[in-house]
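Hi support team,

I submitted a single chain yesterday and got back a structure, but I'm not sure I'm reading the token output correctly. Could someone confirm the output below corresponds to the sequence I sent? I've pasted both exactly as they appear in my results page.

Thanks,
R.
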Amino acid sequence: MAKRRSHLCPHQAPAARQRGLALLTAVFVVAMVAAAAASLSFGQHIWQRQVQNMMDRAHSENLRQSALNYVIVLLADDARQSDTDDLTEDWAFGADREPVEVPIDGFAEGRLAGYIIDAQGRFNLNNLVDANGAPSQKQIDVFKSLLESLELDPNLAEAVVDWIDRDGDQRSYGAEDLVYLAKDPPYRAANQRLQSVEELRLIAGFNPDDEAERRRLDTLREEHLTVLPVHNSKININTTTPEVLSAIYGNKLPLATAREIVGEVKQTPYKNEKELKERVQKGLGNALLVDIGVKTDYFEVAVITQVGRLLRWSYALIHRPKSGATTLAWQSQKIVIKGIVSDESE
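Hi R., thanks for writing in. Yes, this is the structure output for that exact sequence:
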């Protein structure tokens, strides 16, 4: 019987293997091209996002600088036109810390907002010591009265004095290096004037565990205190809070009366400090502990800008002296890009 011959030629198996290898090679090349294309596309996306962030940051910075320059001009112009400062004037927008929105032409998704606060309407913590770094008892009495009005321990004032006076002697209820070196991590008392209100968190007694006390301290810091680069600033009675107004009289001026006065001057500001003295003279005599005035040299400014993905908070202290140019005393800012936060100050 004749053998059945195969329908496949001897050279067909290698040819099939070659075709399979070619197909595998083609798939591999396509995969590599696709991966390269994806990598290039991702890289281009990242580059475009970086460029956009840089553009947003530049636009935001221009808005911020423009807003601060506007405030400087506004305050300088106000000084030329008025001998007093009060909450009826053009500069006093957002004085309750509620930012006032300003429309931005050309930025569909942009935001500009801000407020100005009379820093001398608050108690200046650096007034607690004099030019020589020695404690100023009348200023300490005012601060203690302010603490009492907010149901806080008046002895906290002693710790603040120890923090900023120049000696290492601990006051009866104060705290010096030995207290702070025992903390984890350890640090020393500053023994110099405060740089910001937030520095209080480093001082003994100002970071309690009790939640209610923490809230009262937050109110104290946010509404009634300031830190100025001088030790002899006056309280502006046209812009102060009822608690501070009562405190400068050692709380002998009832808080209810102080609230009435603050409400009155929002509509009809005092032209000089004598008007307040006449208003509360009966029963108080010479109870006034510190100097008061109706003119301000320092203003706190907040500017909020948002362009694209970038949100920036800027804070500044503007110094407007009685003579000379109005300038920035300091400024700081916080920038947020999709949850990435950075702080800058100068």
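A quick pointer for reading it: Strands lie at 100-102, 111-118, 123-124, 225-226, 235-236, 292-293, 298-307, 310-319, 327-337, 340-345. Let us know if anything else looks off.

Best,
Support desk
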